[in-house]
Amino acid sequence: MIKKAAIIYWSKTGNTRKVANAIKEGLLERDIDIEIMEVNQAQDVDFLNYDLVCLGTPAYHWSPPQEVDGDIRGLPTDKNLEEIKRRIVCDLGGH
Ligand SMILES: Cc1cc2nc3c(=O)[nH]c(=O)nc-3n(C[C@H](O)[C@H](O)[C@H](O)COP(=O)(O)O)c2cc1C
To answer: Does the pLDDT of residue 5 top 70, yes or no?
Structure first.
């Protein structure tokens, strides 16, 4: 059962932010405790505190933009992420 979720996103022109907020609203309707943050604020996040982690990024030139790619690479990797019950990666480009 998902009790607590983190939504981490990067957005340049606001589309991914809108999607991240829509996901937040959907999860709140299920009484899930949500923390939503931009990826550059997520460096100290302990993923194991969450049952669900959503990562939202647009595609710019078929990849996460350079800015978000750098921030994702900086996210903590010292934890065993297999212990998170569920994970979703949201890639929000159209192609
Ligand atoms: C310069 C540029 C390159 C893009 N490259 C891609 C791409 O390769 N694939 C794709 O599906 N969408 C691409 N898009 C569309 C963006 O991913 C899309 O507009 C996205 O919703 C922008 O998210 P944001 O508003 O959160 O920044 C590109 C947009 C721009 C401006």
So the answer is: yes
